[in-house]
Amino acid sequence: MDIRAQVSMVFHLDKCIGCHTCSVACKNIWTDRKGTEYMWWNNVETKPGTGYPTVWEDQDKYKGGWERREGTGEIHLHLHERSGGLANIFFNPYLPTVDDYYEPWTYDYEDLFTAPEGDDQPTARAVSLITGKHMEIEAGPNWDDDYGGSPVYAENDPNLEALTDEEREQLTEMERVVFFYLPRICNHCLNPGCVAACPAGAIYKRGEDGIVLISQEKCRGWRMCISGCPYKKTYYNWSTGKSEKCILCFPRLESGQAPACFHSCVGRIRYLGVLLYDADRIQSSASVPNADLVEAHRTIIQDPFDPAVIAAAKANGISDAMIDSAQHSPVYKFVKQWKLALPLHPEFRTLPMLFYVPPMLPVLAKVKDGLYDNADAASASLAPLLSSLERARMPIHYMARLFAAGNDEIVTASYRKLIAVRIYMRAKTVKDVPEAEVQEALRVGGTTAEEVEAIYRLTSLPTYEERFVVPPLAREVAVEQTRDPFTQKREGGFGFRKAPARGA
Prior knowledge:
Blueprint: E1 3-12, H1 21-30, E2 43-47, H2 59-62, E3 66-68, E4 75-77, H3 82-87, E5 105-107, H4 111-114, E6 126-128, H5 165-172, E7 180-184, H6 193-197, E8 203-205, E9 212-214, H7 224-228, E10 234-237, E11 242-245, H8 250-254, H9 260-263, E12 270-278, H10 282-286, H11 293-300, H12 307-315, H13 320-327, H14 330-337, E13 342-343, E14 354-357, E15 366-368, E16 371-373, H15 375-378, H16 382-387, H17 396-403, H18 408-429, H19 435-445, H20 449-460, H21 464-467, E17 479-482, E18 495-498
Parallel strand pairs: 1-14
Antiparallel strand pairs: 1-12, 2-7, 3-4, 5-6, 8-9, 10-11, 13-14, 15-16, 17-18
Helix pairs in contact: 17-18, 18-19, 18-20
């Protein structure tokens, strides 16, 4: 047992309002510089939709993440083997282009003051921040924002491939159009493809908290990390010739503050805490078939109250304060204890440490005799409330493709528990649901009244300290990772070494 500590995150999608305040906060602090204009370390996408960069989920195009060999069960980089990496080191055919992102621009505001007198109102023409020339705006970082269900953008979502023709058709019917928001940052994965793909060994995972960083001194701008990351959360700074990515605001964490995007979140959808994980299980958990990936991911996460886990953590130099933070972590509750939060695209096999509580899906209704009929869904009886999962406008197959590598049962179990919370709290506050139906909802959801109360409390009424359990990172006794940059084989986690104290 090789116990390590990882700062992890949960995003509760049912509370996201798509305001992009998180993106603006991150942009103002970290990417408001030359060469970073197109970078969005934090972005909010509309689903169904193509995302940013365009169709980033299509790994047939971008070759990100890891692949499993069916014969042996071993995993290898989707991008290339070692020989392929050397062959393509000066030319990577799987990089996103400017068109996949967008050409950043500003406006020539001087035209508003210097335009000759005329009958028309003068306008400020768009100017490229890369070339400095006038340009026509054709795309942006949120170009398909709120266009969920549209035949223009949403139908190009790769996750729709899991749906039947009937399910795809219902998403484009006017009365059934539905969308939800998906905020994304770097997942700070346990098995990051960007680390394995970097020929220069510039990307590393901090031993004391698991944050994945890029050394600006070692980076040589090969950009293999961009292709190796299936989530496309590594970017190339065209001005400095270096790659950059989300650093989880580690300077803020080291001073006891939450990351900027977490702190500024209007919907309070974000939770941060420590998970203790067994690094010896990384390779085996990333190598299981798709249907088993979520459960295998959960088995890596260890119980912070288990005496054996605590002893193994202390043997690895994890402090009592860090273990205490893990015991109070809201992430542990959502992911391991309640099994509500799920990883994004676990089939990429990077073992992401950002988890999502799926959004409660709108109940399916239809136009009947000229009226929008949702009377069944509004009924207070248990059957329609529970059956809303099957009658939801967003098919379960879509959510399973997004959060469970296609395993419908995993997503269904999460939704059943969320529906049980809804029914229990409705009975408690509105008092129009019979007790027998409440008990049946708890049974079907596999939960108890005490657990439902705890879920409701942490979802709806958490304090700042309950949402963000920031551990003391103790950088003066940091543990840093070492890795052979040219070795892509994983042997049950990463190697670590203790670094000397600062100034030693």
